[in-house]
Structure formats: structure tokens, C-alpha cells
Write a structure and sequence with these properties.
It is built from 25 helices and 35 strands. With about 900 residues, the protein is an alpha+beta fold. The two termini are about 40 Å apart. Belongs to the type IA topoisomerase family.
């Protein structure tokens, strides 16, 4: 039987079902070879010779393929239809070459969807490995290795605490840091808008906004303060108004094109709250199950047969009126389309979500998004009527405008409308029937409710002239028919994963297969944190970016990175030689590396200190020097590095002054540095900041007492408000509550790793509030301990979710443990990843976690999952393999971008 090789066992299972018993389908479990993490794996002096190494886990998979080839030398490489898939096929062929006899048939087949028709058609049209695509992969892999393996050590030596740099990762990080600096440099500008509630002669009400005053058109900042806004309110409130014009214009909205990788990730973020990594993981499973086409693509066109199938589905489900006369054709506007040109779409247009047989909730939701977007892309446009009403006073001194729209035919909007990252200001208000020449009467009391809400704000209201009333941010006529609202210009918003991917796509940075890994890497490196779905740079991310912009400006340039991506695309098209591209890059890059060899850490810190001064030393409220030490008043603050790595702000008067503080505080709070809180029993009680946050300390470290008493500041306590009394309370913990009434053993209250607690012997029970540690009495402590004991017994017997039987026997359960939810089978406990909800986990995902845990550290007495369990899990082993203790250089070199 011919041997067919694909990447994953799930894909192998599906394809084997389609091909039947005439073929043997095996999985390579992803890449089988990689560059070893050591110097010389890419040798620029030997024409960029690359030394590949077979991964230890891959040896058994290659052996299985070699054993199968002993029976039939017909090898068919059926990996994914993109550059990465072509590279895997090339690696397989290189690794299997010794096992192939002369004249053996080796073919490459690709299919954009794992359906029976697509697979059988691909098998009938084999080809050879596309060397141009392989060359583009080799160039990209070598570039990423050379940058990661040579630039990261420079960071370690010159910027303590930095972890790694990457060719595209660092440019992506710069986007986020640049945006944060834009936000910090932004100066808000005040402006006001004036609104009136009007009524038709029939009593129907509508809202209008002032657009002209004193016969001149109002620009955005013409009403720049409350005084001018008050004059405008008086001008409108004191005049009769009449409708001077009504215009209604037809408008239409065309549907969005089908998904490609970047737009799928953006919509999954907006509508489902999925990160790029979670989105691609769910899409991978849908693809391997044969439900959608290949999910790594920047193409938006659809196969003709798929277009016709979509039209048939629209006709059957919604009727002829929702079907355009001719199919919609979409053309990719991107300069650099990848090889898998077709869009991401369902393989069966008639298979709507309500008929989908998928257990995992994330896959179901993502499929629903893909199905709706695809169907909507072939539907009729939405038709509406946009109406504009002009209102003016007879003397022409004031002019107002009311706008609205009426939906005449919903078209594609019946199925799908794209989400928005920020308010696009589309006016969808409905207007009553309004005739030109009719009076527009001011409606009294129209803004009373808004005024009452504004009055509750804890800010100072503006001064109101006679005939008007004022509330914070609002001015209103006495009759409450006309109101002026205060506005401030807003800084650019922080990036979400969706808008970051969109921006990268616009700049030509990265490619569909790399977006998710890039965004994930900068978060894993702790250069960026995600808060309320927004990406915020950490201090170490700012330091790395500032260092790279200062000493390697070309290699974090947006244009340079985009141009290099274009050259990689030209290699894949056969228009450039990959070694020539590498040669030009290395010539300049190696010189830039040499230019930093003599740099001293103090020079680097001074340079970064100067560049980040506006961020590190914001203006003081009292107008004083922001660099003056607040503790001693003599020294100046500057950037320093800690022996343990990382950076902080310290006083130049050290060691006489030991003031330190972190680079910045969360949420814009004023950073709190070291200070003396007072004295107790002749010892100094001080507040300090360490690598794990602020803490209080009794005395100073000495040779005789290297570890003086310390206590961390609990969560919820503001270090800036900490005083001597509270510090002494913390340093006195654990606090004895008294002997237990049953056995006389001491009960103590304290604050530990998991928060406030009471302790009786070896038994612990959490307390809800930190402050209760200092006040809890015996009765309450006994009650809390007893309740914990009861809950503990109940919890042990009650799983969060039952997932059924394991293929090797035994129940699979989702349990709630001390360190979070986990999957339990026999004696194997596998912790759930952070992005996986215990309510949404499927049996397939649970099997994957169990198999990974068993392979990593099999426990004595536990059954080893059999082959059918691994096959049921349907996953690539590398996807669940623990990262292990790799060096940062290795991790970066393997990151790919």
C-alpha cells in the first residue's frame, strides 16, 4: 500500500477514512527536524549552510514511516498547502532518503479542504516538492535563527533582565510601545456640542445638532469652552426654528468578503473574545475534521463550486430576494498573497451550526462565525434610505441638522454584520415624517433626565449664565429644551490582538501562519500584558524596544521588516535566490552587532534613561524637579539594574540614601519607592520594593542578620497609604488567636501565598478579607475551620463535569483543585490551560491533556494510555509537549518570527 504522510493523527484519521484500505496514512506529528540551539547551526561563512537535527520525539515517528516503506516504496507527502507544509514535506523527504531505493516514487499532493472530493482529486494530481517554496522557508528560518541567536545574547549582556529579541517579534512589540507613548504624550483638547429636542406639528420628536452659528459653519473646536457653549445655547433657545430642507438619498451596504486568517482572528477577538492563538487552535480542529478549508491564508476568493453551493444555500434558506443576479467575486488587495489562495469557508454550505456535530463550544462558535460570514458574502446588498433635515432660524443666525436612516431591505445583514473595534459614528437614528417649511418646536424638559445623571458626577460644574443650569460636563436652558455637552479629544486606543494583527497586515509585517505565534510570544516573554483585552507594554518591553531602536534601528524599522517579507515572497515566486538575500542581510547585521561589542551597561542605561525620561519621571504636581529624590532631597533619580536582573529607579546618593521604586505603577498610579515608616524597639521599619512587589522590613540586612523580618503588602492595600501601625501589624504575623476548644492546639491567623488564612495544626482555611486576620476571634475561627472541613469533603466527591469513559477504561472527570481546574483519569491529573474553560472542555481535549501528562511523567500504578487513546485525542504531540528548560536563545531561534 502507498504510504501517505500528513502532520497530525486527527488529519490522518480523516484522510484514511476517505482513501479506504488502499493506502496507509501515517502522521509525522509536525516538523521532524529543526536547527539545534547552538552556534554554527546556520554558518554564514559556509554560504549559510544549515545543520538540521531530528528531534528525539520524531525518531519513533520516522521509524514507523520507514517500516511502512519497506513494504511499499510509493511515498505520498500530503502536508498542508502553504510554505510551512511544503517545508515539512521537504524535511520528511530529506530524513527518509536513506530508506528510499533508487527509482522510488515520491509525490507531493495538496488539498485546501479535508473532504473526500478534495482528497481524491488531489491524489489524482500529484506533483513534486516546490523548491522555491522550500527556499523561502529556508531563508525565513535562517533569518529568524541569525537574529534570535545573535541579538538575544547582546540583550542579556547589555540589558540585564531582557529575555530575547526576534526579527518580527521585536517589531510587533515596538508597535505596542509606540502606541503607548502616543497615548502618554497625548494632550486632551476640550470642545462642546449643542443639541436640541424638536417636535413636528403632529407632536413627533427628533434630535438635532447645532451646525452653524452667527451665519457661519461650526467647526469642531469653535465652541472651545463653557462660555462659548452657553452663548450658543442661548442663541438656539431664544429663536423660532423652521425646517428649511429635507433630503432623502438611497444608500446601500455590500457584504464583507469571506474570511482570511487575519480577518478571522480579528472577528473572533471582537465577537467571541478569542485570542489569536485560541482562534487558530479551534480553526485547526475544524479543518482537521473536514468542516472548513485551510485556515492559514490571505486569499479571499472562493472556488467556483463553493460559490454556487453558497448561492444554493441562500436560495433554500432565505429565498430568491436575498440572492444577487450574479455571483460576487472578491479580489485580494494584499500585495503578498500566500500560496493557499482560497478563503476560509465551510466545506459544506448546507451545514449550518444547528446541524453541526462538534462538542467543543469554541469550535462551534467559530464555525458559526465562518459559516455566517461565507453565506453573507454571497447575499444581496442591504438597502437603506438616509435622510438629512436642515433646520434654521428666520434670521439665519443658527442652523441645526438632524440625520437618520431607514432600513428598506436587510439583505446580507439578516445573517451577519462585521464587528467594530471602535465607534465608527454611523447614525442609525429613525426620523419621523418631516416636511420642508414646517415649524420645528423646542420640546421642554427634554434633557432633564440627562441633567439629573450629570449632576451626580463628583466634578465641578461650569458656571451657568442667567436662564441656564449647569451640571458637570453639561449646560442646559432653563426649559431643558437645548443642551450643550462637553467633550475631550481622546488618545488613540491601545491595541487589542485584533487591531494589532490588522495593523501588522497593513504594514506588511508577518504572514498568516505567524500572526498568532508573534502575539503570543511577546506576552509569554512578559514584554506585554493583556488587560480587558487591550495590550499594554510592561516596563521590560519598553526597555527592550528603546534599546533596539537606539542601537539596532534598522532591524526594528517597519519598512525594513516589510521589505524583507517582500523579498521572502519573491524567493517563493522563484524571482530571488535565498542565499543572496541572506548574504545582504548578514553583511549589515553583523556590522551592527560588532558596533555594540564595546558598549558598557552604564552607557546603555544612560541612553535608555534619557529616551524614557518623560515616562520614568512624569511632571510633579508641585512643579518640582521630577528627578529629585523624594527621600533624601539631595540625590537624583536614575535608571539602575538589579543583581537579580531587571531594572528600577534609584537614588544617585546610594548607599547613604536607599530610595528605590519600580519603573512605573499599574493603572497610572504614582510609583511608591522605599521610605522609612518609623522606628520600633530601636529598629528602623521601612517600606521597600522588591522583584515580587512592595514589602515592609524591620531593620537592615547585615552580615550577622542577612535576612531581617519582612512581610509582603497584601493585595488591596495601597503602599502609598501604609503607615507604621499597619507595618507593625504585618510584621507581627502570624497572629495567635488562642487554643482550640477541642484539643487545645493553637489557632493562628496570617497571610500566606494564597491570601489570608486561619490555621489549626496542619489544617488551613481561607479568610475572605485581609483585615479579618487582625480582628478574627475564637468563635469565628472555629466556624471557618469547620466550614472548610465540610466543604473539603464535599468537593472531593463532586466533579465539575463528567466527560465519559476513557478508551482504555475508567471515567474522565473535570475536577476543581487547589491550583485550579484539572482533568482526572485514574491516577493522572492534568491541569487545564489558562485559556480553557472547565465548562467548555471536550472529551477530545481532555484526552489530549491526559496523553501529554502521561508522556511527560507517567505515575506509578497508572495505566498508560493506549494507541487508541492517543488517536482519539487527535493531536500533534509537539503541541502538548512541555517546553522544558530551554535557553532563551533556543526558544527564540525556534519561535520562527
Amino acid at each position: 500500500m502507498p504510504v501517505v504522510v500528513v502532520e497530525s493523527p486527527a488529519k490522518a484519521k480523516t484522510i484514511e477514512k476517505y482513501l479506504g484500505g488502499d493506502y496507509r496514512v501515517l502522521a509525522s506529528f509536525g516538523h521532524v527536524r529543526d536547527l539545534p540551539p547552538k552556534d554554527g547551526s546556520v554558518d554564514p561563512d559556509q554560504d549559510f549552510d544549515m545543520k538540521w537535527e531530528v528531534a528525539s520525539d520524531s525518531k519513533k515517528h520516522l521509524k514507523a514511516i520507514r517500516d511502512a516503506l519497506k513494504e511499499d516504496q510509493n511515498l505520498i507527502l500530503a502536508t498542508d498547502p502553504d510554505r510551512e507544509g511544503e517545508a515539512i514535506s521537504w524535511h520528511l523527504l530529506e530524513a527518509l532518503a536513506p530508506a528510499l531505493k533508487k527509482g522510488s516514487a515520491v509525490n507531493r499532493v495538496t488539498f485546501n479542504a479535508i473532504t473526500k472530493n478534495a482528497v481524491t482529486e488531489a491524489m489524482a494530481q500529484p506533483r513534486q516538492i516546490d523548491q522555491a517554496l522550500v527556499d523561502a522557508y529556508l531563508a525565513r528560518r535562517a533569518l529568524d535563527y541569525l537574529v534570535g541567536f545573535n541579538l538575544s545574547p547582546v540583550l542579556w549582556r547589555k540589558l540585564p533582565g531582557a529575555k530575547s529579541a526576534g526579527r518580527v517579534q521585536s517589531v510587533c512589540l515596538r508597535l505596542i510601545v509606540d502606541r503607548e507613548m502616543e497615548i502618554e504624550a497625548f494632550k486632551a483638547r476640550e470642545y462642546w456640542s449643542v443639541h436640541a429636542r424638536l417636535a413636528t406639528p403632529g407632536g413627533d420628536e427628533y434630535d438635532a445638532q447645532l451646525v452653524s452659528l452667527a451665519g457661519s459653519k461650526l467647526e469642531r473646536f469653535d465652541l472651545a469652552d463653557a462660555e462659548r457653549a452657553a452663548m450658543a445655547v442661548s442663541a438656539v433657545a431664544s429663536r423660532e426654528l423652521r425646517v428649511t430642507g429635507v433630503s432623502a438619498k438611497p444608500a446601500s451596504r455590500n457584504p464583507w468578503p469571506p474570511f482570511m486568517t487575519s480577518t478571522l482572528q480579528q472577528e473572533a477577538s471582537r465577537k467571541l473574545g478569542m485570542g489569536a492563538k485560541a482562534c487558530m487552535s479551534a480553526a485547526q480542529r475544524l479543518y482537521e475534521a473536514g468542516l472548513i478549508t485551510y485556515m492559514r491564508t490571505d486569499g479571499i476568493d472562493m472556488a467556483p463550486e463553493a460559490v454556487m453551493a453558497a448561492r444554493d444555500a441562500i436560495r433554500a434558506r432565505f429565498g430568491e430576494q436575498y440572492l444577487p443576479k450574479s455571483p460576487r467575486m472578491y479580489k485580494n488587495k494584499a500585495k503578498n498573497a500566500q500560496e493557499a489562495h482560497e478563503c476560509i469557508r465551510p466545506t459544506d454550505m448546507m451545514l449550518s451550526t444547528d446541524r453541526l456535530k462538534v462538542g467543543a463550544d469554541d469550535q462551534r462558535k467559530l464555525y458559526d462565525l465562518i459559516w455566517k460570514r461565507t453565506i453573507a458574502s454571497q447575499m444581496e446588498a442591504a438597502r437603506m434610505e438616509r435622510t438629512t433635515v436642515e433646520i434654521a432660524s428666520p434670521d439665519g443666525q443658527v442652523g441645526l441638522r438632524a440625520t437618520g436612516q431607514v432600513m428598506l431591505f436587510d439583505g446580507f445583514l439578516r445573517v451577519y454584520d462585521q464587528g467594530r473595534d471602535d465607534d465608527e459614528g454611523e447614525d442609525s437614528a429613525r426620523l419621523p415624517a418631516i416636511a420642508q417649511g414646517e415649524p420645528a418646536t423646542l420640546v421642554a424638559q427634554a434633557f432633564e433626565a440627562e441633567f439629573a445623571r450629570a449632576r451626580d458626577k463628583e466634578t465641578t460644574p461650569p458656571e451657568a449664565p442667567k436662564g441656564q443650569r449647569a451640571a458637570p460636563g453639561l449646560l442646559m436652558s432653563d426649559a431643558a429644551a437645548v443642551a450643550a455637552r462637553q467633550h475631550f479629544t481622546q488618545p488613540p486606543p491601545r491595541y487589542t490582538e485584533a487591531t494589532l494583527v490588522k495593523r501588522m497586515e497593513e504594514l506588511g509585517i508577518g504572514r498568516p501562519s505567524t500572526y498568532a505565534s508573534i502575539v503570543t510570544t511577546i506576552q509569554d516573554r512578559e514584554y506585554v500584558r493583556k488587560d480587558k483585552n487591550r495590550l499594554i507594554p510592561e516596563d521590560k518591553g519598553r526597555l527592550v524596544t528603546t534599546f533596539l531602536v537606539k542601537y539596532f534601528p534598522r532591524y526594528v524599522s517597519y519598512d525594513f521588516t516589510a521589505d524583507l517579507e517582500n523579498e521572502l515572497d519573491e524567493i517563493s515566486a522563484g524571482d530571488l535566490m535565498w542565499r543572496d538575500v541572506l548574504g545582504r542581510f548578514w553583511k549589515d547585521f553583523s556590522k551592527a552587532l560588532e558596533g555594540t561589542s564595546e558598549l558598557r551597561i552604564s552607557e546603555v542605561l544612560d541612553s535608555i534613561d534619557e529616551a524614557l525620561a518623560p515616562h520614568l519621571y512624569p511632571p510633579r504636581a508641585d512643579g518640582g524637579d521630577p528627578r529629585e529624590c523624594p527621600l533624601c532631597g539631595k540625590g537624583r533619580l536614575n535608571l539602575k539594574t538589579a543583581r537579580s536582573g531587571g531594572a528600577f529607579i534609584g537614588c544617585s546618593n546610594y548607599p547613604e540614601c536607599r530610595y528605590t521604586r519600580p519603573l512605573s505603577a499599574p493603572d497610572g498610579e504614582e510609583p511608591v519607592g522605599d521610605r522609612i515608616l518609623g522606628h520600633d524597639a530601636g529598629e528602623e521599619i521601612s517600606l521597600k520594593t522588591g522583584r515580587f512587589g512592595p514589602y515592609v522590613q524591620r531593620g537592615e540586612a547585615t552580615a550577622e542578620n542577612p535576612k531581617p523580618p519582612r512581610a509582603s503588602i497584601p493585595k488591596g492595600w495601597d503602599p502609598a497609604q501604609l503607615d507604621l501601625e499597619k507595618a507593625l501589624q504585618l510584621l507581627s504575623l502570624p497572629r495567635p488567636v488562642g487554643p482550640h476548644p477541642e484539643d487545645g492546639a493553637l489557632i493562628e491567623a496570617g497571610i500566606g501565598r494564597y491570601g489570608p488564612y486561619v490555621k489549626h495544626g496542619a489544617k488551613y482555611a481561607n479568610l475572605p478579607e485581609v483585615d479579618e486576620v487582625f480582628t478574627i476571634g475564637m468563635n469565628r475561627a472555629v466556624e471557618v475551620l469547620a466550614a472548610k472541613q465540610t466543604r473539603g469533603r464535599a468537593a472531593a466527591a463532586a466533579p465539575l463535569k463528567e466527560l465519559g469513559e476513557h478508551p482504555d477504561g475508567g471515567a474522565i472527570q473535570v475536577m476543581n483543585g487547589r491550583y485550579g481546574p484539572y482533568v482526572k483519569w485514574e491516577k493522572i491529573n492534568a491541569t487545564l490551560p489558562r485559556d480553557m474553560s472547565p465548562e467548555d472542555i471536550s472529551t477530545e481535549q481532555a484526552l489530549e491533556l491526559i496523553a501529554a501528562k502521561a508522556a511527560k511523567s507517567p505515575r506509578k500504578g497508572a495505566k498508560k494510555p493506549a494507541a487508541k487513546a492517543a488517536k482519539a485525542a487527535g493531536t500533534k504531540k509537539p503541541a502538548v509537549k512541555a517546553a522544558g528548560k530551554k535557553t532563551a536563545a533556543k526558544a527564540e531561534a525556534k519561535a520562527g518570527e
